[in-house]
């Protein structure tokens, strides 16, 4: 296992972190605790020392599970990360209430790396106005948390201002070879690192979408490469190639995934990929782009929409229908995100578009946004749309 140093505190963190969002489950959907515990402990025994969870993972079951899995001396071997469910915060007191509940669930006296979860611009503004900076300061002072950070899912401009708004120790961003210009992107990665923040990367495999269902044209490129690697190894090595990255989280739910990722982590040095290898990955990226239904890069130049449509968010899940081969999951995520479940609460779906055309001239990709949004409505919103939103509200326990 390789390790990288956190700039502000000197912690040596394993470059592979164990993400507890996709643990193995039983037929009834609950965590298969025996398998999951073996996987977590096997990873720790083989060098992983950063373990990440959150309030909503596994419908609230991930934190209590991890509290049990880290018994028998395993808690002392890791840096534990969990997250404040920012979308559920309505007043300053909620922040302490959630943190205290998480300490009990995790059976620990402190959280080593505590994040304000799933921030976008307006959600950050809300929690900031409710006093999240004071909350973090006090929680650090009384020892309930050690390091303060945030995870991010918004626009690049919002990322920079959140980085600058507090004396963060670290941040967590989505980053992979398809997301260089999406959300925080490469510029955000480099900006955070320039400010001395450790950068934890989530979704290095885009939720498994770069490995589970590989399009044939992409498979051919990998197969013809002189260096033989699995799609997962190519994707992980690409992220680790960036020296600004501290830890890459992998949501490992299968024993073989754990073993493979541990092996790959032995070679995840920064700046270790050759120019020819990077060209191969760029070719794969190009093929994925060809498969996309809309060439949106997530730059957010089209935003804000006067009708409240989250245009990049709609396009991302619309693309995922063809990229992932799992249209039902893409539609569910669309309902959760654009239905207002994972935001401040207002719906942001495509059918809110009134065809005003204000966004069209702002798009650097020259996308006919209103026309594509009509296609999104046909594909993503149908007779089951409200049922998907209701299911998402139940999972995330949002009234």
Structure explained in plain terms:
With 399 residues, the protein is an alpha/beta fold. The protein has 2 domains: 3-280, TIM Barrel (Alpha-Beta Barrel), CATH 3.20.20.100; 311-395, no CATH class. It is 43% helix and 13% strand. It is built from 15 helices and 10 strands. The chain has helices at residues 33-45, 62-69, 92-105, 121-129, 132-141, 156-165, 185-194, 216-224, 231-240, 255-265, 275-291, 311-324, 327-338, 369-380, 385-395, and strands spanning 3-5, 12-14, 16-19, 50-52, 79-84, 111-119, 145-152, 170-174, 198-202, 247-250. The chain has an 8-stranded parallel β-barrel, surrounded by 6 helices. It has a two-stranded antiparallel ribbon with strand order 1-2. Helix 9 crosses helix 10 (255-265). The radius of gyration is 20 Å and the shape is globular. The mean pLDDT is 93.
């Amino acid at each position: 296992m390789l390790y990288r140093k956190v700039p502000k505190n000197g912690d040596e963190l394993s470059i592979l972190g164990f993400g507890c969002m996709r643990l193995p489950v039983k037929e009834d959907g609950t965590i298969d605790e025996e398998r999951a515990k073996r996987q977590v402990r096997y990873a720790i025994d083989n060098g992983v020392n950063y373990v990440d969870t959150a309030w909503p993972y596994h419908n609230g079951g991930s934190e209590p599970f991890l509290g049990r899995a880290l018994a028998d001396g395993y808690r002392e071997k890791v840096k534990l990360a969990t997250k404040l469910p920012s979308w559920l915060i309505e007043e300053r007191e909620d922040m302490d209430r959630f943190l205290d509940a998480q300490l009990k669930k995790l059976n620990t006296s402190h959280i080593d790396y505590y994040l304000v979860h799933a921030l976008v611009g307006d959600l950050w503004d809300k929690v900031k106005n409710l006093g999240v900076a004071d909350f973090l300061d006090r929680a650090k002072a009384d020892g309930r948390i050690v390091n303060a950070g945030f995870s991010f899912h918004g626009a690049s401009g919002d990322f920079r201002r959140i980085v600058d708004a507090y004396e963060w120790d670290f941040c967590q961003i989505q980053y992979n070879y398809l997301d260089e210009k999406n959300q925080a992107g490469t510029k955000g990665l480099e900006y955070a690192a320039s400010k001395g923040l450790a950068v934890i990367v989530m979704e290095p495999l885009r939720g498994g979408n770069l490995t589970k269902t590989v399009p044939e044209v992409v498979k051919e490129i990998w197969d013809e490469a002189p260096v033989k690697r699995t799609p997962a190894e190519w994707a992980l090595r690409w992220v680790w190639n960036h020296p600004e990255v501290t830890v890459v989280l992998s949501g490992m739910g299968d024993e073989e995934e754990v073993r493979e990722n541990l092996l790959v982590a032995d070679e995840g040095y920064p700046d270790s990929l050759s120019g020819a290898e990077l060209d191969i990955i760029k070719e794969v990226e190009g093929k994925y782009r060809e498969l996309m239904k809309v060439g949106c890069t997530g730059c957010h130049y089209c935003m804000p929409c006067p009708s409240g449509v989250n245009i990049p968010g709609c396009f991302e899940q619309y693309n995922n229908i063809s990229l992932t081969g799992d249209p039902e999951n893409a539609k569910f995520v669309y309902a959760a995100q654009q239905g207002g479940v994972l935001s401040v609460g207002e719906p942001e779906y495509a059918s809110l578009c009134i065809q005003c055309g204000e966004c069209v001239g702002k798009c650097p990709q020259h996308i006919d946004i209103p026309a594509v949004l009509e296609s999104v409505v046909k594909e993503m919103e149908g007779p089951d749309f409200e049922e998907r939103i209701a299911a998402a509200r139940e999972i995330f326990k949002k009234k």
